[in-house]
Amino acid sequence: MPDLEVEHSHEDCHGHDHNHDHKNEHQHHQQQQHAHVYDKLDLAESLLAEIEDGQYICLVCADELDAKSPIWNCSVCYRVYHLPCIKQWAEKSLAFRADSPDPTVESWKCPSCSTTSSMIPREYRCWCKKELNPTYDGIAPHSCGQTCAAPLSCIHKCMAICHPGPHPECTALGPMIKCYCAKKSKQLPCILTSYSGWQCNNICGELLPCGMHKCQKKCHQGLCGDCSEKINATCYCGETVLPVTCNNLEPKQSVEIDAETGKQSKSWIGFFVCDKIQEGKYECNVHSYKLECNKRTADTYKCPLRPVEGETCPCGKSPVTDILGHPRSSCEETIPTCGQVCDKKLKCGHTCKYPCHEGECPRCYFVTDMRCRCGYNRFLVPCGFAVTGEKPICARRCTGNLNCRRHRCTNVCCEFEKKAIKYGKNAVWGKGYSVYDETIEREYKEKHGCTQTCNAMLNCGKHRCNKECHVRPCGPCLESSSEDWVCPCGRTILRAPVRCGTMLPTCPYECTRPTLCGHPTPKHPCHGDDKECDRCLRLVSKPCACGKNPEVKNVPCYQEYASCGQLCGKPMACGHPCPKMCHRPGECETKCSRCAEVHILGCKCGEISRTIPCKATAADREMNLLIPCEESCLEAARRRQLAEAFGMDPARQAPGEFEYSDNVIDLYLANPGWCTSTEKKIRDFALCHVGNGDNGTNKVLRFPPMKKYDRMFIHELATAYNIRSQSYDPEPQRNVVLFAPQRSGPTSGSSTPGEAGTVTVNGPVYIPRLTVGRYITEHGIA
Q1: Element of type H or E holding 227
Q2: In whole angstroms, how large is the CA radius of gyration of the chain?
Q3: β-pair type (626-627, 598-603)
Q4: Angle 662-670/672-688 helices, nearest 10 degrees?
Q5: Together in a domain, 289 and 345
Q6: Which InterPro entries does the entry link to (predicted)?
Q7: Domain match, 238 and 340 both
Q8: What is the pLDDT of residues 209-246, one digit of tens each?
Q9: Residues 6+ positions from 593 with CB-CB distance below 8 Å
Q10: How far apart are alpha carbons 109 and 120 in whole angstroms?
Q11: With DSSP H G I counted as helix, E B as strand and the rest as coil, what are the percentages for the chain, rounded to 5?
Q12: 647 domain-assigned
């Protein structure tokens, strides 16, 4: 039964899903049909149609919105939402902002356009907001049916029925609008009406500010402006008559006084200043004047030296009557001085200390303390010099950088030095500050600009910057080539002009360059001259390098030499055959390669014999196969003489044969494989340092970290070869290093035990005749 229930349930669900899928397909088909219709409608009509059809989606809940759902719409983007959804959205947004770092901001954002609002939507109103909880009349959803009456951008109101979306254009007739000059009027539809006025084809005709002329411009907006008419005008001195723009006239009343009668002889209105100088005599007929063109009055011609009532001495301290005892009688009489200190205030603030005098006061002779131009030194300068605005100059040379921050200023007493040092430390582009301050750099360039050429290498790596030395990074290279860039195969072309630094695009075709061998080119992409073609991989037959096999088969074509795999065997200069594999001619002997064969050398008396490697090189053409006799040779000769004198056998007096220590033999028997390979390394190392110790080979032989008894074997064996050994590093990284002697020879030596882990030796390297293995075999040690 449970199985049947499950199966049955499955069938019901399947049938329901089938019906639901069919319904969804039908709805989807309807949505597609509606979509084509909605596209042809404006925004307001589309909103109403989608809501009426139940196809409009609320962005908050993602559910359909119909004509009976309480709604709220955004006044900016006109998006429509369910009222409960947008209310919950606003409340959650405000609650989230209350927990934010700035809780004072109480606003929420529209989900569509992010317009902020502080009021939470709580009421369901019609589109025009006039009616609360509007009822659906079957015509327009969420509409009250009244006129919208919202104010438009013009003087009218929206006459459409309560609607969503933007307001339609105004269709009313506009008011009568006068032109700019107010001579004509016209009336147009509101959307075509220019409420600021319009221009007719008449002349303006308004009276200009001069009060004499009228505006001759075409009907225009705004003020008429100044009068540009020209009239013939007289200057202030009456000597010049010129045409002057009406706007530039400055009328002033001028008069002329007759020098003989002292009465006004002429009067006129002057309008401008000419460049003439008028000469004549004052009313006194004694003193003369030179007057620039200016307004002429009766006082202009009066003598400035004439006696006046209450006049004083030049400094103003004493009346003339007190000095002379009577007033001056005429302008020819000199104004007397009182003899007191002048005390007039000078420009610098001090008072004149000269005696009462006529004319301007001399320069102040007080001394003041003043900084030099660069501000590092102080000087005592006359007060009169300080008033001029100039600054004293010291001998200090500027140490600040120029605006490029690369070159130094060498000017004497530079006024910008302190700022240059400050900017040089704190305003270097890319290091001292992250924001490029244009104001600072502009002042820096004006006061401390570098005039040298930058000459820095540009990013292209070919050209240099030819601008003035600057602080910011050089711009891109602006050089260009007037020739087309063509790839090697000629099928990819970059047309001129080609800017410097431009890379040729990757050619999609194959390389067509012929190979040197003549074989077909392996397929590979087209490339530049900086890259070689792929190597020819065809298998061919070539003679071997040593000449033993004239035809080695299956050799890649790109390979210059083939190898037959046999030993060379050609005799070298030392007489031994070349042990190298097949190689090119002339490579048997080189200055750095040595012959590895072994020579048995002996002394002249035959007492000493040594086995050493040949080590001959291309530079060693002569070899000495004799070794010099030593003290042992003399001892052997003396033993032979004594033996012959006493009738004894000299061979019985020979020293005992070399013996390995018990530790070496025991360790060898315990691990013969490792001991044999280690002994070979030590023996080869010793052979390399027999004879001339400084032969260019390694001076040390390092062994990897090992156990205590393995190190003991190396120390004991090094003692047998008379080689110094040393242990380094703590456990478990303790290792042994062998050191080559400074000089060595093929003779026996003595060893001296050193400190723990160290074996020191005296004398040359010693090569035992028998290895440890052969020594054990010959002596029957088990």
Answers
A1: none
A2: 59
A3: parallel
A4: 130
A5: no
A6: NFX1_fam, R3H_dom, R3H_dom_sf, Zinc_finger_PHD-type_CS, Znf_FYVE_PHD, Znf_NFX1, Znf_PHD-finger, Znf_RING
A7: no
A8: 888 889 989 999 889 888 888 888 888 888 888 888 88
A9: 617
A10: 11
A11: 20, 20, 60
A12: no
